[in-house]
Amino acid sequence: MRTKILAATATALAVITLSAGVAQADEAPVQIDSGGSGGAGFLPDSYVTGGATDVNRTGSNGLPNFGRTVAHPIPQAQWDSFRFLESSYAVPGLTPGASYQVRLYFDDWYWSKVGQRVFDVAIDDTVVLKDFDIIKAAADAGGDGKWLGVEKDFTVTADSDGTVDISLIRGQADQPLINAVVVAPAGS
User: Fold this and answer.
1) Which of 10, 66, 72, 95 satisfies CB 3.0 to 4.6 Å to 148 for a cystine?
2) Closest-CA residue to 130 (of 166, 171, 165)
3) What's the CATH number for 21-185?
């Protein structure tokens, strides 16, 4: 059997790979506009439980796609809306057992100093960001921290139901905040 698989055609290998639970490169990412109405390929705030929503009220566009902190830029409109307070996303429809890159986007439109908002983020019950401070992350990358976007990426495996769970957890100061969630096939 192993010899037959090795000698199989590219088409047959793709079928074998798909059945083994590997996300396909052409699989569309799930893009969620946290707290927003969607657009530009982003779903309206979806698959979420808890929290509240708001929008950028600063009168500034800031610099959300700051090159030192954002590897995969997103449109301004998705930065301008956000979900805050404890909440969780259960992103469905993924290939069970497949690898995905979870991209989390943060821009604090309310606070402007280090230490004013510090929280945790867990993916599938594993804390991936402990004592996360959006302003500090932007400042540590060489910006002044104020109104700069920060992207944090994690490679995860979809569970047996094809779901990835993301939890925003209250930490040392104020409440969690997120602007967008993207779950893309690993390597895309």
Assistant:
1) 66
2) 171
3) 2.60.120.430
